[in-house]
Amino acid sequence: MNKFLLLFAFLASVSSYADDKLIIVSSFAEKAVEPNMVTLNIEVWSKANSAKQAQSLNAAEFQKVKKNFEAFKVKKEDIQTDTYSLNPEYVYDQKTQQNKMVGFRALQIMKVTLHKTEDLGAFLDAVVSSASKNESGTNVNSINWDTDKRQQIELSALADAVKNGRAKADELAKAAGVRIKGVSMLSHGVNSSTPPMPVRGMMKAMAFDAGGGANTEVMAGQVKVRVDVTAQYEIQ
Fold it and tell me: Which of 165, 176, 189, 193 has the largest count of CB atoms under 10 Å?
């Protein structure tokens, strides 16, 4: 009896699904705005014969960078240390065919956000120019443009994507001679086309220290947000 009830329920479910008459459409909308914030990946490094010396050099280099943070009025909540490491460094000795320890390397990687994007070029020049010695320095590994209005932009793009989908469904229904009864299912996904941009910080620092004198210019472009929507409409 139980097996019969289960089989009946399964057949009823399949029959109900088979009876559904649907129009399925995919649509999207994209918004582009000028960025009003930028996040940098900044690396403070040092190397020395002893671990303590490498650590001290790193702390001194960080203080130089910190002064630049203060000069550009970067808020404390916009500075976050992602990585701190202190490790021995090795080189391969061809004679002994073994790794030989040659010193220690200290590394601190920070994520720093600037809300005045027009200051970015000067900020890069100030931060990276501290890398003037072989035993310590500062690299800028990447920058990532963004906007603090991302949520509003996503919602606006979502509304447009749904409207575009409904317009497609209406055209399909009209061409097929049917009428849309209601929405059966909606789903969406968000994509951003602003990947991090790599920056060769040490090379910029060397050019600056060599007397190049040119100021760094960085182009912001636009932050693009795309929303994709899939919709199922019941028809009759």
Answer: 165
